Amino acid sequence: MHKKIIVNKFGGGILTKDLIPVIKKRIKEQTTRGYQSIAVVSAMPKMTDYILLFLNNLKENYSAEIIKTFISDIFSKHEQIINDLILDIDLQKKTKLELLKNLENLEKDLNNKKNISNDLEDKVVAYGEKLSAIILTHYLNASGIQAQKILAEEIPIITDNNFKNANIVYQVSEVNINKKLSKIDDVVVISGFTGKTITGEITTLGRGGTDTTACFVGTALKAEKIILWKDVGGVLSADPKIVPEAETIPIISYLEAEESGKIIHDKAIQYVKMFKTPIEIASISDPKKNTKVGLIKKQEKGAKIVSLKKDLSLLLITDENIKVNDLLLMVSEIFIKYKVEITLISNTRYSLQLVANNSNGQLDKVYEELKGKVNKIEMVNASMVFLVGWFHAKDVSNFNDLLVKLKTDLLISAFYYENCYRMEAVIRTDNINKVVKAIYKKFIK
Ligand code: ASP
Ligand code: MG
């Protein structure tokens, strides 16, 4: 008979020499209780960034020399952790050999294709997850836990060919994973963040995509639960660096998790929400600190999380000669052209207010291009503060009142809508932390 399954996601942030032994402990606890434990892993800390940076440099300066250095850097970064964790010399050698074999293939891939296209980029980036899956599997085996590695591409998890941000083709992949795991009772280590198109090319699921793999795997296998392990105590009511007394929230709904934006990857939450898979966010070093995400029988009104987005820009665009619809169309085309993310839009008859995230550094180009096209445009620095929970209309006006009282420059106030799970306002202030503290005190504490 088949065991009940727990799917674990171990992100790059906790794949360190101090925390991998704790990961093993958590897996051991699950197998001891009779579960089949599945570990979905990301690449080692900062590895994806490192690989992407290398590929960008390679675009400008392609040479076999650079590729060689990169391969040996990747090897030594992983070698260090193998030396730290796997003490048995034979097993250590075996792990390194497998690593080297993969890196040989990687080097071939890179030397074969001189133009770095999105599909090559995904193939190369996917090695990050491949290598960490190899190491974790060997480490578990070296620690007496029977484990086997199955790469996403071996399952295979099938995706569309939207390279760098591919989507899992659910039905086929669901069949594939159930088939692949039907005769396995051991611990299984699966490489996250990656998949394969129907024609066999490797894809990645978008940054932070290991959540997506874990939520897909857990849902497709009808797991007892999915646990996203973190180095913090589950979901906190505020950033503890700003609000030291912030606490772990015991339970939140799928909707609240979705609204909070950063708890579970957007793509990932769709699976668990749709199939109501129980999911938990837990602290790797102290699992009692956890937040359950799921159905809440009797949802209560009130605020649960205060959060903020800093370093945004507000663009105020006014042009009495252009209808707001046309204005919006023109403006969005320019934003799309420069791939700048719009966080919020509001409008009056002849004006538009857009809050933009300048994370790709292209906002100035958007601004310059717009300047030549509209009557009046102004750009100011801004932050967004938001509360997640379930709100009455009067909560929203209290929220706006508080922001005015705190003398923030309230640029866009929060508004009420039916089933309001999130209220957000755009403000300009030098002291955003003070604002967050005050909101916490009034609405959460
Ligand atoms: N390693 C990938 C990234 O950094 C996937 C993940 O971490 O979930 O985006
Ligand atoms: Mg990562």
Broad shape:
globular
Distance between the termini: 48 Å
Mean pLDDT metric: 94
Residue fraction in strands = 15-25%
The unreliable regions are: none
Bound molecules: aspartic acid, magnesium ion
Structural class comes to: alpha/beta
Indicate the percent of residues in helices.
40-55%
How large, in whole angstroms, is the Cα Rg?
Answer: 24 Å
Largest sheet: 8 strands, mixed
Strand line-up across the major sheet: 3-4-2-1-7-9-10-8
Order of helices and strands: EHEHHHHHEHEEEHEEHHEEEHEEHEHEEH
Number of DSSP helices?
A: 14
Number of strands: 16
Explain the overall architecture.
42% of the residues lie in helices and 24% in strands. By secondary structure, it is an alpha/beta fold. The strands form three sheets. Strands 3-4-2-1-7-9-10-8 form an eight-stranded mixed sheet, sandwiched between helices. A six-stranded antiparallel sheet has the order 12-13-11-14-16-15. A hairpin with a 5-residue loop joins strand 5 and strand 6. Helix 8 packs parallel to helix 10 (266-275) and helix 9 runs antiparallel to helix 10. The radius of gyration is 24 Å and the shape is globular.
